[in-house]
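Study both lines:
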Amino acid sequence: MRSSSTPPSSYFWLTLLACGIFTGILASFVDVTTELLADLRFGRCERGFWLTRRVCCLEAFNSSHCLLLEGGWKEWVPSSDVDWAAAFASSTTIGLFFSLLAAWIVRSLSPFAAGSGIPEVKTLLSDAELKGFLSGWTLLAKTSSLVLSVSAGLCLGKEGPFVHLSCCVARQLLRLVPSLRKSPLARMEVYSAAAAAGVAVAFGAPIGGVLFSLEEVSSFFPAKTLWRTFFCALSAAFTLQLVDPLGTGKLVLFEVTSHHRWQIAECAVFLAIGILGGVIGSGFLALNTAVVKIRKSKWKSFPVLEVCLLSMFTSAISFSSPLLLSSGTSFLSSLFQECSDLQEEGDVKEWLCPSSSHSASSLIFVLFAVAAVKLILTSFTFGAKIAAGLFIPSLCVGGAIGRGVGIAVQLATSDGSTFAMLCASSTRCILPSLYAIVGAAAVLAGVTRMTISLVVIVFELTGGLEVILPAMLAIVSAKVVSELISGSHSVYDRVIEEEKYPYLDTKEDLPDTIRTVSDLLSEVDLFVVSAVEEVEQLKQKIKEVKRKGEAGVAVVHSLTDMAPVGFAFISSIEAALASCGEEERFLDNEELCIAPPSSVGLRRVAAFAPPRGMRDSFLDLSHTLDSAPVTVFSYSPLKDVLELMRKQHRRYVLVLSRGRVVGTVSRLRAVEVCREERALAASLRRAEARTRGESTSVVRHFVAFASRMLKCLLPSRGRNRRGIGDDGL
């Protein structure tokens, strides 16, 4: 990483303030546009097609009354005039058009606009280079595709992609501040703050956004970055509150207020929900990984067609239940509210609250079925070539399961039931909405492995301290169970592995290996250029290096002595050569390149280290050179070199032997080595277990975990009640 002068502190604050403000404005635009287009799938407002259904029906008593008002809401296909098939056809056709347009925009403008963008942000914040990921075209494509894909009714969310969008906004602002843009450390700080601002506008949780940036995406987070990140997240949340795009005074639609004091006996149920959330999260990872493999092998050439098929299939399934037909945020908002607080009349409230027409047992079955369908649809949708988030679908799955469990517990503690004595002293003993919140947090923790930041996000969403302990129990148990079943990697880590991004996780232990750097060098070619090269010869070497997939070359004094001079990235060399043009011209020393005058009579050459007194006779490329690269010896332990690259965020290191350059190790190659060593270690463990006749199934892991927990909780023999052995003190 190049050293650079520290930018002025005022530039930081102004950039972070602007990033927060523009992120809040962009989030408001996405919220309003998404709500409008989603409503247009079913009808329009007679007073103006640009009005959402919620705004159009402000003067109505309910949605049925709004359909009768003059200038109210009019459906494209009134249910009283034609059958169900016509309404299904109109909604599916509009949704299919939105999906087709969303996929076409991603394919045409920027492939980086697909997905949530969080895996790429994690890679970017480890000081890796993803060219075009934060470009203006990506910002435009991501915003457009996100609005269209959510409006199409696909099983995805818009909250996760806000992290990517906020980083794109930060990148455009950095273009205006060269001192920040040219400093790698400053860029990483700004992107960390932008990621926090994205979560702040997604959940209305600025503190949770700061912790998310610290816990999940940032590899470089010094103490001074904490306050700067909070300032950016706070400015984004304040802007969103000031604009108030929803017109409700809430930062997000599913924000609720919960101040219910639960019973101590409910902790066992909260723990069970967490275990179930971990199992569901692991199941989602397994199913999504299988879908991704099929997508890469068979559907890779038809991304737009795949999205269209997903849209039609989702529409067909969604029309089977009003709970599936409603949007993710409105469904989640209904799950988080008690029946007395629900304002929706009709099918949604009817299927969330026991009534004379639907018994509690039938509601439990329906909620579990809805959760299963949403889980399967999300597994197929996440990874398609459209902008798609994972937070809201995961929360919906967990919320439906949690509310179903809450209704079951409410039924078990009702008058005359088995556990009626638990609620003898309270009329509102069991609240299914609390269980929905706990279940939502558990499933999201099982999928993403979020812990501390998720607890704080739940607190900021509900505003109740009473929710923290149940959420903590569920989140911790979900994380432990999911890691026991499917390992420590979250869904975002799986994406990084599938796409082979150069990401070195600073929170994970490096694999044990006895290999040295010299073992690694024998597997790759050595690419070097001398300090003075002919231009045509340099271009040929660049082509060869690019063909091998390397990002840069080592620069040596000469090919004879191989003494190190520095390291140069291919992109920088190509940009410098392109700026010179084909014609020779003599420029001032302050310019990028200097061509020799015709009187010298030398062939045109390029120099990374021009000799003294002869600078004007060379094409100067020294500004592309990192003259102080990190160097290691060829006999250095490979694990130490990987640790060096990970902690110092190095994209490469030069390998020396007796003062001569013998190779380079890039970040991408280091990541490949880590994956190879972990896969080898896992295969050896499985082979050893088979040799000893042991099972490597999930059951063995779970039994071992349970036995360890029992040893910790139960007193051992020979110890008295104070925990002191017979020998005493």
About this structure: The mean pLDDT is 79. The chain has 28 helices and twelve strands.
